[in-house]
Protein backbone atom coordinates (compact mmCIF):
# COMPACT_ATOMS: atom_id res chain seq x y z
CA UNK A 1 0.00 0.00 0.00
CA UNK A 2 2.85 2.36 0.75
CA UNK A 3 6.59 2.58 0.56
CA UNK A 4 8.41 2.26 3.87
CA UNK A 5 8.98 5.63 5.54
CA UNK A 6 12.61 6.55 6.20
CA UNK A 7 12.18 7.79 9.75
CA UNK A 8 15.86 8.54 10.22
CA UNK A 9 15.72 10.88 7.23
CA UNK A 10 12.58 12.59 8.56
CA UNK A 11 14.48 13.47 11.74
CA UNK A 12 17.64 14.39 9.81
CA UNK A 13 15.72 16.91 7.70
CA UNK A 14 13.65 18.13 10.67
CA UNK A 15 10.50 17.01 8.84
CA UNK A 16 8.78 16.09 12.11
CA UNK A 17 5.40 17.86 12.30
CA UNK A 18 4.14 15.27 14.84
CA UNK A 19 6.72 16.41 17.40
CA UNK A 20 5.06 18.97 19.68
CA UNK A 21 8.01 19.17 22.08
CA UNK A 22 5.90 17.97 25.01
CA UNK A 23 3.91 14.92 26.14
CA UNK A 24 0.46 14.22 24.69
CA UNK A 25 -2.25 16.06 26.69
CA UNK A 26 -4.27 12.83 26.99
CA UNK A 27 -1.32 11.14 28.68
CA UNK A 28 -0.67 14.08 31.01
CA UNK A 29 -4.32 13.96 32.15
CA UNK A 30 -4.27 10.18 32.60
CA UNK A 31 -1.15 10.31 34.75
CA UNK A 32 -2.76 12.94 37.01
CA UNK A 33 -5.85 10.79 37.62
CA UNK A 34 -4.50 7.24 37.90
CA UNK A 35 -2.20 5.30 40.14
CA UNK A 36 -0.15 2.27 39.22
CA UNK A 37 2.20 0.00 41.13
CA UNK A 38 5.25 2.27 41.63
CA UNK A 39 7.47 -0.64 40.52
CA UNK A 40 5.72 -0.88 37.14
CA UNK A 41 8.12 -0.84 34.18
CA UNK A 42 6.90 1.21 31.24
CA UNK A 43 7.72 0.89 27.53
CA UNK A 44 7.03 3.66 25.01
CA UNK A 45 7.61 2.18 21.52
CA UNK A 46 8.08 4.63 18.64
CA UNK A 47 9.02 7.19 21.29
CA UNK A 48 10.62 9.68 18.88
CA UNK A 49 12.34 12.43 20.87
CA UNK A 50 11.02 10.98 24.10
CA UNK A 51 8.46 13.53 25.32
CA UNK A 52 5.82 10.97 26.32
CA UNK A 53 8.44 8.71 27.87
CA UNK A 54 9.68 11.67 29.95
CA UNK A 55 6.17 12.13 31.40
CA UNK A 56 6.20 8.54 32.67
CA UNK A 57 9.68 8.96 34.14
CA UNK A 58 8.71 12.24 35.83
CA UNK A 59 5.72 10.42 37.32
CA UNK A 60 8.27 8.12 38.97
CA UNK A 61 8.24 5.04 36.76
CA UNK A 62 11.18 3.12 35.40
CA UNK A 63 10.68 3.95 31.71
CA UNK A 64 12.17 2.82 28.42
CA UNK A 65 11.69 4.64 25.14
CA UNK A 66 12.34 2.63 21.98
CA UNK A 67 12.52 3.75 18.37
CA UNK A 68 13.95 2.82 14.97
CA UNK A 69 15.53 6.24 14.47
CA UNK A 70 18.91 6.73 16.17
CA UNK A 71 18.80 10.50 15.64
CA UNK A 72 15.54 10.79 17.56
CA UNK A 73 16.99 8.68 20.38
CA UNK A 74 20.12 10.76 20.59
CA UNK A 75 18.02 13.97 20.81
CA UNK A 76 15.87 12.28 23.47
CA UNK A 77 18.90 11.26 25.56
CA UNK A 78 20.30 14.79 25.41
CA UNK A 79 17.02 16.50 26.32
CA UNK A 80 16.10 14.15 29.16
CA UNK A 81 19.52 13.22 30.53
CA UNK A 82 18.55 14.54 33.99
CA UNK A 83 16.00 11.72 34.44
CA UNK A 84 17.89 8.71 35.83
CA UNK A 85 14.89 6.36 35.51
CA UNK A 86 14.55 6.97 31.75
CA UNK A 87 16.50 5.02 29.12
CA UNK A 88 16.30 4.97 25.34
CA UNK A 89 17.29 2.13 23.05
CA UNK A 90 17.03 1.38 19.33
CA UNK A 91 14.69 -1.35 18.24
CA UNK A 92 11.94 -2.49 15.93
CA UNK A 93 8.68 -3.01 17.77
CA UNK A 94 7.34 -5.28 15.04
CA UNK A 95 10.20 -7.76 14.89
CA UNK A 96 11.88 -7.97 18.28
CA UNK A 97 11.21 -9.33 21.75
CA UNK A 98 12.45 -7.93 25.07
CA UNK A 99 14.44 -9.99 27.54
CA UNK A 100 11.88 -9.05 30.19
CA UNK A 101 8.34 -7.98 29.18
CA UNK A 102 6.92 -4.72 30.55
CA UNK A 103 4.01 -3.93 32.89
CA UNK A 104 2.56 -1.20 30.69
CA UNK A 105 3.02 -0.10 27.10
CA UNK A 106 2.07 3.41 26.10
CA UNK A 107 1.43 3.98 22.41
CA UNK A 108 1.04 7.38 20.77
CA UNK A 109 1.52 7.89 17.02
CA UNK A 110 3.24 4.56 16.32
CA UNK A 111 0.27 2.50 15.11
CA UNK A 112 -0.68 5.31 12.70
CA UNK A 113 2.94 5.58 11.54
CA UNK A 114 3.44 2.02 10.38
CA UNK A 115 2.34 0.67 7.02
CA UNK A 116 -1.29 -0.50 7.45
CA UNK A 117 -0.28 -3.78 5.79
CA UNK A 118 1.78 -4.46 8.94
CA UNK A 119 -0.98 -3.84 11.48
CA UNK A 120 -1.41 -7.55 12.13
CA UNK A 121 2.34 -7.77 12.85
CA UNK A 122 1.86 -4.98 15.39
CA UNK A 123 -1.05 -6.83 17.04
CA UNK A 124 0.99 -10.06 17.16
CA UNK A 125 4.08 -8.34 18.52
CA UNK A 126 2.33 -6.41 21.29
CA UNK A 127 1.83 -9.37 23.70
CA UNK A 128 5.52 -10.27 23.31
CA UNK A 129 6.45 -6.97 24.96
CA UNK A 130 3.87 -7.09 27.75
CA UNK A 131 3.44 -9.33 30.81
CA UNK A 132 0.16 -11.28 31.11
CA UNK A 133 -2.22 -8.91 32.95
CA UNK A 134 -0.14 -5.92 31.79
CA UNK A 135 -1.74 -2.76 30.39
CA UNK A 136 -1.72 -1.29 26.91
CA UNK A 137 -2.62 2.41 27.01
CA UNK A 138 -3.00 3.96 23.57
CA UNK A 139 -3.90 7.19 21.85
CA UNK A 140 -4.99 6.34 18.31
CA UNK A 141 -5.72 8.52 15.31
CA UNK A 142 -9.35 7.95 14.36
CA UNK A 143 -10.03 9.06 10.82
CA UNK A 144 -10.63 7.26 7.52
CA UNK A 145 -7.76 5.17 6.22
CA UNK A 146 -6.61 6.26 2.77
CA UNK A 147 -3.42 5.91 0.76
CA UNK A 148 -1.95 9.18 2.02
CA UNK A 149 0.14 8.66 5.09
CA UNK A 150 1.67 8.49 7.56
CA UNK A 151 -0.32 9.18 9.61
CA UNK A 152 -2.65 6.38 8.54
CA UNK A 153 -6.12 6.56 10.02
CA UNK A 154 -8.14 3.80 11.64
CA UNK A 155 -11.66 3.32 12.92
CA UNK A 156 -12.57 2.47 16.50
CA UNK A 157 -14.10 -0.80 15.28
CA UNK A 158 -10.91 -1.80 13.46
CA UNK A 159 -8.83 -1.16 16.56
CA UNK A 160 -11.20 -3.00 18.87
CA UNK A 161 -11.43 -5.98 16.54
CA UNK A 162 -7.69 -6.14 16.14
CA UNK A 163 -6.73 -6.09 19.81
CA UNK A 164 -9.63 -7.86 21.52
CA UNK A 165 -8.26 -11.34 20.76
CA UNK A 166 -5.46 -10.93 23.26
CA UNK A 167 -6.68 -7.97 25.33
CA UNK A 168 -9.72 -6.94 27.36
CA UNK A 169 -10.88 -3.37 26.77
CA UNK A 170 -11.09 -1.67 30.17
CA UNK A 171 -12.02 1.85 29.02
CA UNK A 172 -12.04 4.16 26.02
CA UNK A 173 -12.63 7.91 25.78
CA UNK A 174 -11.91 11.10 23.88
CA UNK A 175 -8.74 12.65 25.31
CA UNK A 176 -7.68 16.27 25.51
CA UNK A 177 -5.65 16.86 22.36
CA UNK A 178 -2.91 18.95 20.79
CA UNK A 179 -4.06 21.96 18.77
CA UNK A 180 -4.97 20.84 15.24
CA UNK A 181 -5.91 17.30 16.30
CA UNK A 182 -9.52 18.03 17.30
CA UNK A 183 -11.78 15.00 16.77
CA UNK A 184 -8.81 12.94 15.56
CA UNK A 185 -7.77 11.11 18.71
CA UNK A 186 -9.32 8.37 20.82
CA UNK A 187 -7.77 6.79 23.88
CA UNK A 188 -8.00 3.12 24.87
CA UNK A 189 -6.96 1.22 28.00
CA UNK A 190 -6.52 -2.51 27.42
CA UNK A 191 -5.39 -5.31 29.71
CA UNK A 192 -3.56 -8.33 28.37
CA UNK A 193 -5.50 -11.54 28.93
CA UNK A 194 -3.76 -14.02 31.23
C1 LIG B 1 5.00 9.81 13.88
S1 LIG B 1 6.46 9.48 14.76
C2 LIG B 1 5.91 9.71 16.45
C3 LIG B 1 7.03 9.85 17.47
C4 LIG B 1 6.55 10.08 18.90
N1 LIG B 1 5.64 9.05 19.35
C5 LIG B 1 5.90 11.44 19.01
O1 LIG B 1 4.66 11.50 19.15
O2 LIG B 1 6.63 12.44 18.95
C6 LIG B 1 6.57 7.71 14.62
C7 LIG B 1 7.81 7.16 15.29
O3 LIG B 1 7.78 5.75 15.26
C8 LIG B 1 9.05 5.26 14.93
N2 LIG B 1 8.85 3.93 14.34
C9 LIG B 1 8.26 3.64 13.15
N3 LIG B 1 8.20 2.29 12.98
C10 LIG B 1 8.76 1.73 14.09
C11 LIG B 1 8.98 0.40 14.51
N4 LIG B 1 8.62 -0.64 13.75
N5 LIG B 1 9.58 0.19 15.71
C12 LIG B 1 9.95 1.23 16.48
N6 LIG B 1 9.76 2.53 16.14
C13 LIG B 1 9.17 2.78 14.96
C14 LIG B 1 9.64 6.31 13.98
O4 LIG B 1 11.03 6.28 13.92
C15 LIG B 1 9.09 7.60 14.61
O5 LIG B 1 9.96 8.13 15.59
Small molecules bound:
S-adenosylmethionine
Largest sheet: 7 strands, mixed
Helical content class: 25-40%
Low-confidence segments: none
Rounded to the nearest angstrom, the radius of gyration is: 15 Å
* Structural class category: alpha/beta
Gross morphology is globular
**Total count of helical runs of at least 4 residues:** 6
The tally of strands reads 7
Strand proportion, as a percent range, falls in 25-35%
- The sequence of SSEs as H and E is HHEHEHEEHEHEE
Global mean pLDDT:
94
Write out the strand line-up for the largest beta sheet, numbering strands in chain order: 3-2-1-4-5-7-6
| Terminal-residue CA separation | 34 Å
Describe this structure in words.
There is one protein chain. With 194 residues, the protein is α/β, with parallel strands linked by helices. The chain has helices at residues 7-12, 25-33, 51-58, 70-79, 119-129, 156-163, and strands at residues 41-45, 62-67, 86-90, 102-108, 130-141, 167-173, 185-192. Helices cover 27% and strands 26% of the residues. Strands 3-2-1-4-5-7-6 form a seven-stranded mixed sheet, sandwiched between helices. The radius of gyration is 15 Å and the shape is globular. S-adenosylmethionine binds at residues 7, 18-19, 45-48, 66-69, 72, 92-94, 108-110, 113-114. The site of S-adenosylmethionine has 20 residues, from β2.
Amino acid sequence: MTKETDWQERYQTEDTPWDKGEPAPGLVDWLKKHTLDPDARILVPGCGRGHDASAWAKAGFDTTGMDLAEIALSDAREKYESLPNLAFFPGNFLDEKPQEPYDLIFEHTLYCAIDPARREDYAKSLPNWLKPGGYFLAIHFIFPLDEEGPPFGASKDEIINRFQRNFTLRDDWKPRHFEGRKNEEWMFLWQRKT
